[in-house]
Amino acid sequence: MQRLASISLAALAGLAASASADTVLVGTTTGKLFDYDTESGSVTFRTFAGPSVEAMTRIGSRLYYSDGEGVIIVLDLDQNTVVDSFVASVDAAALSTDGTWLYAADTDGEIQKLDPATGALVDSVTTVFGQVTSLGVHWGNLYYGGLNTIAERAPLADAFAGNNFQFFAACGGAINSMSFSGLTVVLGSLNGKIYRYDEFNGLYFQDHFVGSDATGLTALVGGSVLVADSSGELLEMDLETGAVLRTVQVGEPVASLHGLDIGDACPADLDLSGVLDLGDVQTFVMLAIDARLGADLDGNGAVDLADVGLFVDAFTGGCD
Questions:
Q1: Percentage helix, strand, coil, to 5, in the chain?
Q2: Which helix or strand (DSSP H or E) is residue 23 part of?
């Protein structure tokens, strides 16, 4: 895919803003779900989920959340009603998905691959470091982080079949949450710090002290991140400077966050900068050269010129 690096950028010279507000779901230890509006900073009650929303992920309009004791509940987001539930053999302290399978982790170190329709166990893997408290899927890799401060990752194709997890990063404190902003992996620690690492090679960028135990973490459009604290506070922080841009009191102890539609209005904004520019082109080229799933826009399992065409169309089409 080296040819992709020489794509003509002339047709991509215009900039387009991604200005619409997004929503972050906020789950509490009292079993409530709130909506956080990224534009206004307002927090509004969505539904009572019960008993506790310790981890969340979403496939389509279905929200999967766990109580941290192995019960995984399925909520229809369009109707705000519980439509299903099942019990996993792990405590499901962390959840994630690749859009097809559901991944649930145990604080003892096991990660399970589950059928989201039935909850049936498809496969499982036991990590070397254990104490898994956070999971994430990003551009073809499955990441986990744990209380031992270690984060590892593996290609999705090899994570279960070959237990091919490799060391990615070590934080200065126990990892409690994770998120992804373009080519940056963001890790939240119990020690009150938010850490940034290069997604390609795991190199440490910097860390910022915000004083939060980071029970939840969601990267936002425009280079910021929303951090949840078990005290019930949400902090919006600038990823580069560490400046706290906004604090909001939820009124309930917060256990988890999930970005409901972050960046959906502007799908070609790959680096979540908030504008379409050459940074997005460079990100796509890097993904394509490395044959990463983030560049496989047509989902055929290969990164090719058809994907380039789809990216150009999305880029020139601007934002909703």
A1: 10, 45, 45
A2: strand 23-28
Rounded CA-CA distance 135/265 in Å is 25
Domain count, the chain: 2
Per-residue pLDDT of 162-204, as tens digits, reads: 889 999 999 999 999 999 998 899 999 999 999 999 998 889 9
Low-confidence ranges of the chain (pLDDT < 70): 1-20
pLDDT at 9: 39
Pair 142, 135: CB distance under 8 Å: yes
User: The domain containing residue 296 runs over which residues?
Assistant: 2-14+266-317
Query: In terms of domains, do 200 and 285 share one?
Result: no
| Buried b / exposed e along 109-134 (16+ C-beta atoms within 10 A) | bbbbbbebeebeeeebbebebbbbbb
Rounded to whole angstroms, the Cα distance separating 123 from 111 reads 9
Closest CA to 187 of 201, 170, 200: 170
Same-domain pairing of 167 and 78:
yes
Q: Are residues 235 and 119 in the same domain?
A: yes
CA atoms within 13 A on the CB side of 113: 18
**What pLDDT is attached to residue 197?**
96
Domain boundary among 226, 242, 259: 259
Alpha-helical runs (H) found in the chain: 156-159, 278-289, 305-317
pLDDT tens for 82-97 read 999 999 999 999 999 9
Check whether residue 77 and residue 152 sit in a common domain: yes
pTM for the structure as a whole: 0.90
Quote the pLDDT of residue 20.
53
